[in-house]
Amino acid sequence: MQNPLRVATTPFFVYGDAGLGKTHLLYAIAGYVKQNYSSFRVRYISTETMLNEFVEAIRNGTQQVFKQRYREIDVLLVDDIQFMEGKEQLQEEFFHTFNTLHEAQRQIVLSSDRPPTRSQPSRIVFAVGSRWD
Fold first, then answer.
1. DSSP secondary structure code for residue 13 in this structure
2. pLDDT tens for each residue of the chain, 133 residues long
3. Which helix (H) or strand (E) holds 91?
4. Which helix (H) or strand (E) holds 112?
């Protein structure tokens, strides 16, 4: 079995219309990694929950804890990233988290209801790369 952190495609970007099972796929990936690689730190999160946690961290002055929660893991799965659109501070934070994980050769899985080059937040498109143009 191949180590899921040593895949050629990181990030793994899933997109499609609502109701096609993107969230189920992310849950399945998280479950698979947890079951087969129990030492790996895996975090699934919806963009809405990430936004709420980010706002709470700013309010409480716990931004460093927020950063550690998402940067010190092996597999990060973020659902519905299209909802980051218009949320510049969250995009900035995610951009740095993305880069930290990518440089550490960690796996990133993203889902959206549209391709990464169409109406996605610009920082995310930059982070993911323009190879899908």
1. E
2. 455 555 556 788 888 888 888 999 999 999 999 999 999 999 999 999 999 999 999 999 999 999 999 999 999 999 999 889 889 999 999 999 999 998 998 999 999 988 876 545 555 555 555 444 4
3. helix 88-103
4. strand 107-112
Domain ranges of the chain: 4-126
CA-CA distance, 61 to 8, in Å (whole number)? 37
For tokens 């990518």, the residue is: 102
φ/ψ region of 119 (left if φ > 0, alpha if ψ in -120 to 50, else beta) reads left
**Which three-class secondary structure string do you get for 19-61?**
CCCHHHHHHHHHHHHHHHCCCCCEEEEEHHHHHHHHHHHHHHC
Bridge partners of 43, per DSSP, are 76
Q: Which CATH architecture has domain 4-126?
A: 3-Layer(aba) Sandwich (3.40)
